[in-house]
Design brief:
CATH class of the largest domain: Alpha Beta
Oligomer: single chain
Order of helices and strands: EHEHEHEHHEHEEEHEHEHHH
Number of strands: 10
Strand content: 5-15%
Distance between the termini: 66 Å
CATH superfamily of the largest domain: Glutamyl-tRNA Synthetase, Domain 3
Largest sheet: 3 strands, parallel
CATH topology of the largest domain: Glutamyl-tRNA Synthetase, domain 3
Number of domains: 2
Radius of gyration: 21 Å
Strand order of the largest sheet: 1-2-3
Shape: globular
């Protein structure tokens, strides 16, 4: 592995001043759906209540799945919803060098290591080691196979793989990272009662991928850099993303970045309690417009009387009745 020089300071070092601001950060892997609309409404609701700017970020680092037409559609959909944002839109694809600089810093700190494992190999090792097959803290299980590769000697397996140009991802050595940072906490504000609690980072989380094999970086790394660069004081996002917060706090500590307050809002579900998401064909905002549904009708259906928890999704046919 080539010798690493100390990383340069981040070109977008974040200010530490505590100005209230939040962000809405969709990914252009498809058209916005009703669940995304709920999240955008929640972000706007918080921003208005605190007289704080709402920033827009397009999380388009995944060049294989993100498409420019979806980025354009996101802007059109937000305008239809009546969601206004402050300042310029931040596109992750325009800041790849910043994320690479963060990765370089982690390499220099010797808290990440190359992982050559395929998904199939990881699954087989998990079965062999009788490990829990489910995600922990939002991170897929990993048995630590490549962390244990010896680094001494010219012909060790790690170096042979690198010399052979074997594809690899970068994984964070969580144990090593926590030795550097010490115990960590983050601030979580309850969406319903607004109480703030302090949550401790789980020291037993699996080693997560920080730099993907295909695109070189990961969502986790990019999002903590972005939140700092945009000086986000409060991260408002769906409660499905709560499990990854411990990892984000750890990366913030390693990169010497500020840690915002986290608020995880309820998710939109149907009348049977199933979450509405892209994978189960949640109706897109474009489909609603095609069916003559107005943005005002959608807002009244999702958050009647601006209630804190969303009403169950009733479907297009019942939505049309509300509008009549």
């Amino acid at each position: 592995m080539p010798e690493l020089l100390p990383p340069e300071p981040f070109p977008e070092q974040a200010s530490r001043e505590q100005i209230l601001r939040t962000r809405f950060a969709p990914s252009p892997t498809g058209y916005l759906h009703v669940g995304n609309a709920l999240s955008a409404y929640y972000c706007r609701q918080w921003a208005k209540a605190h007289d704080a700017p709402l920033l827009l970020r397009i999380e388009d680092i995944d060049s294989h799945r993100c498409r420019a037409e979806f980025s354009t559609a996101i802007i059109e959909d937000l305008q239809w919803l009546g969601i206004a944002w402050h300042g310029d839109i931040r596109y992750q694809s325009q800041h790849l060098d910043t994320y690479r600089q963060a990765l370089k810093k982690l390499r220099h700190m010797q808290v990440i290591y190359p992982c050559f494992c395929t998904r199939r190999e990881i699954q087989q090792e998990i079965i062999h080691a009788a490990l829990a097959p489910h995600d922990e803290d939002g991170i897929p299980p990993y048995p630590g196979t490549c962390r244990q590769l010896a680094e001494e000697g010219e012909k060790n397996k790690r170096q042979r793989n690198i010399d052979a140009n074997t594809p690899f991802a970068w994984r964070l050595d969580v144990e090593r990272a926590l030795e550097i940072t010490g115990p960590l906490n983050w601030r979580e504000k309850n969406w319903n009662n607004k109480n703030t609690q302090t949550i401790t980072v789980n020291t037993a989380m699996p080693d997560p991928v920080i730099g993907r094999k295909d695109i070189g970086i990961s969502y986790h790394l990019a999002v903590v850099v972005d939140d700092a660069a945009q000086r986000i004081s409060h991260v408002i996002r769906g409660e499905d993303l709560r499990p990854s917060t411990g990892l984000h706090r750890l990366l913030q500590a390693l990169l010497n970045l500020p840690s915002p307050v986290y608020i995880h809002h309820p998710l939109l579900c149907d009348t049977s309690g199933e979450r509405l998401a892209k994978r189960n064909h949640a109706p897109t905002l474009r489909k609603l417009r095609t069916n003559g549904i107005s943005a005002d009708t959608l807002h009244r259906a999702l958050l009647p009387d601006n209630m804190q928890r969303p009403a169950p999704w009733i479907g297009l046919s019942d939505l049309a009745k509300i509008q009549e």
